[in-house]
Design brief:
210 residues, tt1808, chain A, six-stranded mixed sheet, two-stranded parallel ribbon, 10 strands, globular
């Protein structure tokens, strides 16, 4: 029996966890949410985290779920998986992987070959345990390593990469602002709200209605 492309199932999950530990998960969220924030006003940039990408129609075994990926030229919106033939045949141009102690050299080599084969333009890896940052940029048919990642600016994202003195990854937007954790954003909003409340109280003490 021949299974047609229409009848073939493309599962939305590969059964694997998004992360192996809290540190890996923290950095995945930091990168993915920072990318969302960076392109929040651009309807033509799709950002996802841990989303299965199927590059070949009729083949549900060839797939990968980058920790974070960016597809320029694709609309925002909900997806169970990224089926490239339904996305104008646009491959995600930028992908990120955050390593965990369980990742092997064989596994990461396989991912590199996958991204190289299916058209990724920029591939970045961060190892939060070893404080190691690596990048690969497309040159012709291959992904060549970036010689120095400290201060490197992504051609597609316009984001500058750096490792802080304690080895943490820092991503700086084109406007000079750094990607931030949810906790940092929420804390700043809370401080601003308390200042506004204090200002309102003082104005009312002066007989003024804000």
């Amino acid at each position: 029996m021949v299974i047609t492309s229409q009848a073939l199932q493309y599962p939305d999950s590969d059964g694997l966890p998004m992360s192996d530990n809290t540190e890996q998960f923290r950095w995945i969220v930091y990168i993915k949410e920072g990318l969302d924030w960076l392109f929040v006003d651009d309807p033509g940039v799709f950002v996802a985290g841990d989303l299965l990408w199927y590059p070949v129609e009729g083949d549900n075994k060839t797939r990968q779920a980058p920790d974070a990926m960016v597809a320029f030229g694709r609309p925002k919106g909900r997806r169970g998986s990224y089926r490239q033939w339904e996305e104008g045949n646009v491959a995600p141009q930028v992908v990120f992987e955050v390593l965990s102690p369980g990742n092997t050299l064989t596994e990461m080599g396989r991912k590199l070959r996958f991204y190289e084969r299916f058209g990724v333009e920029e591939y970045y890896l961060y190892d939060p345990d070893r404080y190691d940052l690596a990048g690969f940029v497309r040159q012709g048919d291959g992904l060549d390593p970036v010689e120095a990642m400290q201060g490197w600016v992504s051609p597609r994202l316009g984001v500058r990469f750096a490792l802080t003195d304690n080895g943490d990854l820092s991503l700086i937007r084109p406007d000079g602002r750094s990607f931030e954790s949810y906790q940092a954003v929420a804390r700043r909003a809370e401080v601003a709200e308390k200042r506004a409340e204090e200002l309102t109280r003082r104005l009312r003490e002066l007989g003024l209605e804000p």
